[in-house]
Amino acid sequence: MRHSMMFSLPLALIACSGEGANSQTAASAEKPFKTSVIADFESPWAMTFLPDGRALVTEKAGDMILFDPKNGTKIPVGDIPQSDSAGQGALMDVVLSPTFGDDKMVYFSFSEARDGVKGVALAKGRFNQASDGTTKLDDVAVIFRASPYVDGNGHYSGRIAFSPDGKYLFFTNGERQKMDPAQDPKSTLGKVLRLNLDGTPASGNPLAAKGFNPAIWSYGHRNLLGIAFDADGRLWEQEMGPKGGDEVNLIKPGLNYGWPKVSNGSHYDGRDIPDHAAGDGYEAPKVSWNPVISPGGLIYYSGDLFPQWKGSLFIGGLSSQSLVRVKLDGDNASKADQWDMGARIREVEQGPDGALWLLEDGGKSQGRLLKLTPAA
Fold first, then answer.
1. What is the tens place of the pLDDT at every residue in 230-288?
2. Which of 155, 221, 267, 276 is labelled catalytic?
3. Fewest Cβ atoms closer than 10 Å to its Cβ: which of 11, 95, 269, 348?
């Protein structure tokens, strides 16, 4: 793997040239925030902040980077399993354990090839930084794999969220562009899963007694690229629709969200898909888009830096090159704002001070890290 080679380099060569200290800032009269360019990565996919303000950033090709926004230093994180990055494959989500302060555990997902087929895997490892700055994950173990692995390079999903009580891990498995597995009770594809922290299916999952895979929490999903809990413990999810029909869903245990039986979009070849309709037996999205936004990351905003947006969802737009805000009102959601960011937005994250952080998905840059703060 490339990581072991990088550890032999002096840290001075690994560190970048102070992108954080010399960030570019732009304010727009049309946007209620100013945008600071903090760093540039190689097709980044996700990020999460450490308690000390540094961040872990994953890159599509399979690298995990420890990044310090204060001085722009980048240090590779070693002992990460090999990812298969063909197509939509990548080293994907990265999230800290709810008890990271005690156990230093980091959970992450990645696409992999095994025995001629591919799927998404969930792994964990213990964060370890030596006195010389060398950083790795110790005792890395894959704790869950989607089932079954299939051919193809799309719709892995792989997003991670911990329940508010820290007892459970929710993990998204895309339907791998195969459609029908989303309705297959034995497959984890096209599902939201509820797992124990060791990756085993959580007891009491709502469909196990009906013969479903015991990990399944909800089903009938397509490509689930964002998942987040709100302040009241509701679980929100966004997913890419087909030609039209991108969705924000309120995830409830045991429900069927319809894919591919119903959708507010159509097949790419023009064939119709029945729209969601009252009484059809499927849970309809709270918000949908047509034309699409191509949703990337998702967060529930709980910060104080933008008090007017507290309690909103924020979504990164890929093909729409936008940042999207969705207003929440109890169990309901509605479209609020959509700002043109001029680049594909793969990830949205909330910083320690309540700033919004965005990762671009390439294009005009390799994949810039942006920090949004109030315009005034």
1. 999 999 999 999 999 999 999 999 999 999 999 999 999 999 999 999 999 999 999 99
2. 155
3. 269
